[in-house]
Amino acid sequence: MTKPYFTGPFAPMCEIFVAQKRASGLVYDQQAMLLRMFDNFCKGHEIQNYTITKEIALDWCQKRLNEKDITRRSRVGEMQRFSVFLSKQGYPSYFLPVLPKQGETHTPYIFTKDELKRIFERLDTLIPTNASPNRHLTYPLLFRMLYGCGLRISEALSLTKGDVDAENGVLHILHGKNDRERFVPMSESLTTLCSQYLLAVHQSTPAEMPLFYTKSHTNYSKSCISKEFKGFLWDVGIPYRGTSLGPRVHDLRHTFVCHNIQRWAEEGVAIYSRLPVLSKYLGHTSVSATQWYLRLSAEVYPHIRQICETELGGMYTNILNFEMQEVDSDE
């Protein structure tokens, strides 16, 4: 007789959870192993009605001796996903949105629609220079792509001509953060702009040529783009407030996410059902990283808070109880 994979107090719910994940097409082997570790850990706790209490969650979150941050985040992230599942099954569980990252903290700057309009209008007035003969074509597309697709600047600058399927409007991110590969659909207007760009600057270039290339046919550096961006912000009256307050190029990605959540909330779309799709689109390793944006969106657009509270209940309240941390970066 085969020994059950899960043998702890959450075993029946773990089996259902993993079965659902695999039925959706996921392999879910490594995640199942992490979930089994959590289930075994809970053998030392008193479990009632398949509920993950605050005490259990915080005990599981404690960093272990010589444990790497990425390992800790992985096992805590799996507990978070399981907690969401249990709550949906009628077993209210404590919900920790994400572990803080070490290092730099940055307060995201969410651009208004008017600020974006001013930025893009400024970009559309650029003229070529001897040092940068394609800047009037490169920058309007690059910054629209960062906002319109929510790309990290490193991902955009790593794109090659061959990574762009202009016919179908899809970008191929071959090496995203943590070397994750994904395909990113573009809007119709962005696809059109991309096609025009390819015709203008890539008619005779090889497939491996950087999509955005300098006069010497090399990749732009992130520092170069950051410096240019600060200049464009100054031109349209948006002050740069320093390293911790920005705005930074990466804030275009934050703005993309918050604007989408704002639109879903105002249109009555079930936000939580869209988060897994948004998470994949952004290249996040887990939905928990994307959930952080619910709080950020509610702080920027207070009228969204009531919508989120109504839809997510206690899970959303728990999100608000934690300090906002930068859970998504371009590093």
Chain-wise SSE layout:
Blueprint: H1 11-23, H2 29-41, H3 54-61, H4 69-88, H5 113-123, H6 135-149, H7 153-158, E1 164-165, E2 170-173, E3 182-185, H8 188-201, H9 222-235, H10 251-267, H11 271-282, H12 287-300, H13 303-312, H14 314-320
Antiparallel strand pairs: 1-2, 2-3
Helix pairs in contact: 2-4, 6-8, 6-10, 10-12, 11-12, 12-13
InterPro entries: DNA_brk_join_enz (IPR011010), Integrase-like_cat_sf (IPR013762), Integrase_catalytic (IPR002104), Tyrosine_recombinase_XerCD (IPR050090)
Organism: Desulfitobacterium hafniense
Keywords: DNA recombination, DNA-binding
Q: Kindly report the CATH topology of the largest domain.
A: hpI Integrase, Chain A
> What is the strand arrangement across the widest sheet?
1-2-3
Largest sheet: 3 strands, antiparallel
Query: Which CATH architecture of the largest domain?
Result: Orthogonal Bundle
Summarize the structure.
It contains 14 helices and 3 strands.
Protein architecture, described:
GO terms for molecular function: DNA binding. There is one protein chain. The chain has two domains: 11-88; 105-331, Intergrase catalytic core (hpI Integrase, Chain A), CATH 1.10.443. The chain is built from 14 helices and three strands. The chain has helices at 11-23, 29-41, 54-61, 69-88, 113-123, 135-149, 153-158, 188-201, 222-235, 251-267, 271-282, 287-300, 303-312, 314-320; strands at residues 164-165, 170-173, 182-185. Helix 2 crosses helix 4 (69-88) and helix 6 (135-149) runs antiparallel to helix 8 (188-201). The protein is elongated, with a radius of gyration of 22 Å. The termini are far apart. Mean pLDDT is 86; it is low at 314-327.
